[in-house]
């Protein structure tokens, strides 16, 4: 394996911020500074010290992430498509479905992310775009993705996102018709009161929406069948009638069926924090008085205060965890006088202190005990996980804190594995869709004995991690 020379590596580190900036003077722009000031209000409202290590640069990181994630407000579709239309002779207009060129064109599996206008948390999108060329011209395929990204990089609702992509492409390309199908995935966040009651809560809320123009305007048109068949051919199995009714309740988990009651029951939101979020909306180019955004600051604050700097009571009730015989990877019983107990797939939710974005996943805990020892109740271990999860956190620290807490109960031999999906990995320009992170903490015998570590790691099933899609 190769590596950067030490001198070159130092230059890379020194220039990290400059290399990562896409706009000159970005940090000095008034919008960035206003967002930083608002984020400081939010952190203080959570009882945090904005000057502590780990939080000092959080306001700037949040400002950069939000402005990057909403850059679509500063982009124009015509500037993207202009110059990307190419002549392509084909069938005469009106013959078959060709519209003058040769047939349906589809770009599948475009990964996008957008910020939910109801709660300001990012959601993932799998976008499929099709169009029927006309006027004997086609558009560069990359432009379909770029146009979709323009509207994705705004505060959005899935159906409006589909409609805006469809409408923009229709007016810019002037085809016989445009079809857009979106598969959207929103983090299904709990609050502290419900998380103990819903241990099997799924990580994502999903919705499928579509929009069509021209020859796709009629949902029953045969060309929709062609579009859906070409998706199914690639393993994307969708029902023909998948349009979400505009009168349906909001898909965002921050709203109940009434569409207004937030999911959290933490009481009235902090007025200063609500005002700060409204200020952020204005700095991003949005109108906080827009109908769909009126309750958004309050919803975001109610989500955020789940992670305020306070103590969460550890619930002690519960039943005993499972027990596993100590065996080597080859199935041979070891000579240890202790046995390995494990508790797998303990759910957790947390908030990244670097970007104020949620991450969640599962925790696996293994520990050694003497013969006849009663395993720790699952509910007690889950309580420990939630205690350290519902804070501003980083995954490495969370893993260590859980291990140290369990070790203090048992006196030593503990191993903890945390598997997580981080929304900051899709919403800061990095856009590593489907990625997940695993961290390990080892104490006592687990830190010195590879066989013990291997036994516990092999007990974690391949299907245990409900992260990503």
TrEMBL record:
GO MF term list: GTP binding; GTP cyclohydrolase I activity; metal ion binding
Domain GTP cyclohydrolase I: 35-187, 275-460
Pathway: Cofactor biosynthesis; 7,8-dihydroneopterin triphosphate biosynthesis; 7,8-dihydroneopterin triphosphate from GTP: step 1/1
Enzyme class: hydrolase
Domain of life: Eukaryota
GO BP terms in the entry: folic acid biosynthetic process; tetrahydrobiopterin biosynthetic process; tetrahydrofolate biosynthetic process
PANTHER family: GTP CYCLOHYDROLASE 1 (PTHR11109:SF7), GTP CYCLOHYDROLASE I (PTHR11109)
Quaternary structure and partners: Homodimer.
Function field: GTP cyclohydrolase 1 is the first enzyme in the biosynthetic pathway leading to folic acid.
Name this polypeptide is given: GTP cyclohydrolase 1
Organism: Juglans regia (English walnut)
